[in-house]
Amino acid sequence: MRKKYIMLWCALGLGSLGALLRSRQLAAGFEEATGLPVPGSVPAILLAVLSVLAAAGALLGGYLLFRRSEVGEDAFERDRAVSLITAAAGAVMLASAVLSYIEGYPRTADLVRKVFAATAALTGACVIYSALSGPKAGGRYFAVIVPELFFCFWLAVTYRTRATSSVLTSYCYECFAFAAATMAFYYEAGFTYRRGRSVLTAAFIAMALVFLGVTLADSHPVAVKLYVCGTMIVLAEDFITFTRNTERTSPPENGGDTQENENPPE
């Protein structure tokens, strides 16, 4: 079932293409005097089409490739190498959370910045803990819910600080990225609570990878881009781990009639 990995490569490819289109849109898709979108901007149109196709393709791919997958709370049980890579990405998230506060991100009240930096750092710490301790460690019920809560908070802060702009396309892809990341971590956490849904987990991880890739082209501080890159590494590793574990436990394609096939009539 290596075809399941096609979703990952497509998500990363579309995210890269989306980042290219987004950079072209930001460079020439807005009027310098007013900041309004340039009518008929080709990069803007193509990016909107790409976004719709990516979301629809992720849901369709998740259904076609993962609808037969059956896996329990060990859905994200990593091997040693993957655990170390994921922990390293979590360390990048932790360090960039501190750096984001130093850089004055987000542009809002100091109290909100402090809460943002603290929750961002806590998310990185929880990623490290989850990667190194395994899916059945004590404290996992707390560790798995922190990332989706943080990205939900990030979405709210982004909307609050950017919604004063009447140009929706100037910030909508940030919102798409943080919303998709929220849902991806939410459905990942569902397996710890024995409420996992394979189709939606795979779909939202793929969507998050696409839109996080797109928003890397936005004019974020270096710390934010590092945090987004760390999150993408974590989600990509989660997709690989999830796919590998579902392949081990998925029923056979012929409906499970294996005993009859193993003992054919003489």
What does this structure look like?
The structure is a single chain. The protein has helices spanning 5-28, 42-66, 80-102, 110-133, 140-143, 146-162, 172-192, 198-215, 222-249, 258-262. The chain contains 10 helices and no strands. It has 266 residues and is mainly alpha-helical. Helix 1 runs antiparallel to helix 2 (42-66), helix 2 runs antiparallel to helix 8 and helix 4 runs antiparallel to helix 6. The protein has one domain.
Q: What pattern of helices and strands is seen along the backbone? A: HHHHHHHHHH
Please give the share of residues in helix.
Answer: over 70%
The description of the largest β-sheet is: none
- Please compute the radius of gyration using only Cα atoms: 20 Å
For the secondary structure, the number of strands is 0
Report how far the terminal alpha carbons are from each other: 31 Å
Our count of domains comes out at 1
Q: What descriptors fit this protein?
A:
266 residues, single chain, mainly alpha
